[in-house]
């Protein structure tokens, strides 16, 4: 079984984009999302490296990571771990177990720019962060190599079709929750106005590790509305629905 797709954020080299297309085709990945690439998927150099794989992959271009990630329910970022000591880093084998449990069809592996990696705000949007173990003297992998290693580890892993684990909420629902939490927690004075993202970032990671479901999103948004009402910011009491108590 294969993952739902790959997200390449600001890739700069045509060869890496083409090689990623080829790897995706090799391992049955059907979609690649390109976020502000230096060259498009139709570039001749991309095609040269893809070796015909470009005809097998649904490759889409986006202006923002948020747009590219909308319809996936789990984002797993590849990062070197340098300067990321406060991030929960997983080894590939451990990460694969989490991804399989959540349903591979809704998973996207996320990769950053060849020289800069992923920006902090993009890493903060991801549910899991994976680090491929490398020699500490030369730890940073080439983009296409990182894609090949992680995609190959996931490919062919059998998923338990009888699994009762609930499917995590899609990213657009989690985005809505985070915006609502920002508003509600600011209303009651819980967030530091100078650095609200410090707490919100940790909440986002918590939801990502837990694989928050759509119904849990509804419950938390109900709590947000109740907080706003209690603080006098919104008129009327939010009536908790039956679905939010399930």
How is this structure best described in words?
The protein has 246 residues and is of the alpha/beta class. It has two domains: 150 residues, SPOUT methyltransferase, trefoil knot domain (Alpha/beta knot); 75 residues, Helicase, Ruva Protein, domain 3 (Orthogonal Bundle). Helix content is 41%, strand content 12%. Strands 3-2-1-6-4-7-5 form a seven-stranded parallel β-sheet. The C terminus is likely disordered.
Radius of gyration: 19 Å
Oligomer: single chain
Distance between the termini: 31 Å
Residue share in helix = 40-55%
Count of domain modules? 2
**Helix-strand string:** EHEHEHEEHEHEHHHH
Q: Which CATH class of the largest domain applies here?
A: Alpha Beta
Remind me, CATH topology of the largest domain? Alpha/beta knot
Strand content: 5-15%
Most strands sheet: 7 strands, parallel
* Overall pLDDT score: 88
- Output the CATH homologous superfamily of the largest domain: SPOUT methyltransferase, trefoil knot domain
The secondary-structure class comes to: alpha/beta
Low-confidence stretches: 241-246
Label the CATH architecture of the largest domain.
3-Layer(aba) Sandwich
**Major sheet strand order:** 3-2-1-6-4-7-5
Count of β-strands: 7
Rough outline: elongated
How many helices? The count is 9
């Amino acid at each position: 079984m294969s993952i739902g797709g790959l997200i390449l954020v600001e890739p700069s080299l045509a060869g890496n984009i083409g090689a990623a297309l080829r790897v995706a085709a090799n391992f049955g990945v059907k979609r690649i999302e390109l976020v502000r690439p230096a060259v498009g998927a139709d570039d001749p150099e991309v095609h040269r490296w893809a070796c015909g794989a470009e005809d097998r992959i649904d490759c889409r271009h986006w202006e923002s990571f948020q747009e590219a990630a909308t319809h996936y329910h789990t984002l797993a970022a590849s990062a070197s771990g340098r300067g990321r000591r406060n991030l929960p880093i997983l080894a590939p084998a451990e990460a694969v177990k989490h991804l399989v449990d959540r349903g591979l069809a809704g998973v996207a592996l996320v990769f950053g720019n060849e020289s800069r990696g992923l920006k902090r705000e993009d890493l903060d949007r991801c549910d899991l962060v994976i680090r491929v173990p490398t020699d500490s003297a030369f730890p940073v992998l080439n983009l296409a190599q990182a894609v090949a290693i992680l995609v190959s580890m996931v490919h062919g892993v059998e998923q338990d079709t009888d699994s009762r684990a609930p499917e995590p909420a899609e990213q657009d629902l989690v985005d809505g929750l985070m915006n609502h939490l920002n508003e509600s927690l600011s209303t009651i004075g819980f967030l530091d106005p100078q650095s609200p993202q410090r707490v919100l970032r940790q909440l986002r990671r918590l939801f990502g590790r837990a694989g928050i479901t759509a119904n849990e999103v509804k419950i938390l948004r109900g709590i947000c509305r109740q907080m706003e009402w209690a603080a006098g910011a919104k008129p009327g009491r939010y009536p908790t629905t039956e679905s939010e108590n399930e």
